[in-house]
Design goal:
This protein is of the alpha/beta class. It has helices spanning 22-29, 33-40, 48-61, 67-74, 90-106, 119-131, 146-153, 177-190, 207-220, 236-248, 261-273, 307-322, and strands at residues 79-84, 109-114, 136-140, 158-161, 170-175, 196-199, 228-230, 255-258, 283-285, 302-304, 330-333, 336-338. The model is unreliable at 1-17 (pLDDT under 50).
């Protein structure tokens, strides 16, 4: 009876436990490890016969190249760390999709993690990404301070999406947030609204320039005495809370500019629970133009940001940094008003 460890000539090799190494392939093919290394690096110093011998042995064993060892030798990981503010918000998923699509085209891998809208968690997740020694980092709307980000990333190439930091070593991709807020207010003013409230994004990235843009646009329209900011955050819950506060007031505004689409959707949901009609009683404008805004039962008027293009830009800038660019660069996109069914002239 044949020993269970023996194999018939030409039969597939018995898979080993754990990872298959170059040494395993060399033994299977009956060649040196150095030759296997040359084959795996596509060296032209190997004959076609011996290359085929090694590749056939590797296929039988299920060998996969050791990316970590290869990267240590090349000083490149072909990996980018991506820290997203919040996976619950489709805006961040769309940014990640833009990064991933371009990364796939050029053979890069992504390590994606979320900060959960909390500075302490962001700090821990940023440190975790750095432990993997990626070629660079993309931080999407981080809540950490600029000085903290700069201290943590050090010399690692870094691009921030949604904010501009005062650091010459960190690039930015963003839209003109103040212009987007102005477009929202101007749209409502053109419809005839004067009582326009802004529900802001609190400490979130982009909240401050959107708030400032709203105040400036209201002043420019001669409506500064009507300007009212309700504190919030970039969540549906914040929108619902703001709606409850407005409902408790003596009189509802005729229009609301929400910090983002999630805030707008939460606000609309809460107002409609109390019988407020949108847009007959209150017009609502969001910001971001996430896919939810275009759904037929929502049809939210909003400000568009080209999320996937912004993600692609972020990876492009990062790769430029890894290739030696040292000057700070900002890619600034122009927002666009997308009018839909949640805005109309006041009655």
């Amino acid at each position: 009876m044949a020993n269970a460890a023996e194999t018939r000539p030409g039969a597939p090799a018995v898979p080993r436990r754990g990872y298959v190494t170059m040494d395993d392939v060399a033994r299977e093919a009956g060649v040196s490890r150095a030759l296997v290394s040359l084959v795996m690096r596509n060296s032209d110093k190997v004959s076609d016969r011996r290359r085929a011998l090694v590749l056939q042995a590797a296929a039988r064993l299920g060998y996969r190249p050791n990316a970590i060892a290869r990267n240590l030798a090349s000083h490149r990981s072909q990996t980018v760390g991506v820290l997203l503010n919040d996976l619950h918000n489709p805006f961040f998923a769309d940014i990640a999709a833009g990064i991933e699509a371009y990364a796939s085209d050029i053979g890069y891998r992504l390590l994606i993690i979320t900060g959960g809208r909390r500075q302490q968690r962001e700090q821990a997740m940023l440190e975790a990404l750095l432990e993997y020694r990626p070629d660079g980092l993309i931080l999407v709307s981080p809540r950490l301070s600029g000085s903290q980000i700069a201290a943590d990333v050090g010399a690692v190439p870094c691009v921030v999406v949604g904010r501009r930091l005062r650091n010459r070593n960190i690039d930015s991709v963003m839209t003109d947030e103040a212009l987007g807020a102005r477009l929202a207010v101007e749209h409502l003013v053109d419809l005839g609204h004067e009582q326009i409230v802004h529900v802001d994004g609190g400490a979130g990235a982009g909240a401050a320039p959107r708030r400032a843009g709203y105040l400036h646009a209201m002043e420019k329209a001669g409506l500064q005495h009507h300007a009212t900011v309700v504190g919030g955050d970039f969540t549906e819950a914040a929108g619902m809370a703001a709606a409850s506060k407005l409902l408790r007031a003596r009189r509802l505004p005729t229009a609301v500019f929400a910090a983002n689409d999630l805030v707008a959707i939460g606000l609309i949901d809460r107002l409609e629970q109390d019988g407020v009609r949108i847009p007959q009683d209150v017009s609502v404008v969001g910001y971001d133009n996430v896919f939810l805004a275009a759904l037929n039962h929502v049809r939210l008027t909003t400000i568009n940001q080209p999320e996937q293009e912004m993600g692609r830009d972020a990876l492009q800038l990062l790769l430029e940094r890894t290739e030696g660019r040292t000057t700070r660069t900002t890619r600034l996109h122009r927002p666009e008003l997308i009018p839909r069914a949640t805005t109309a002239a006041p009655r």
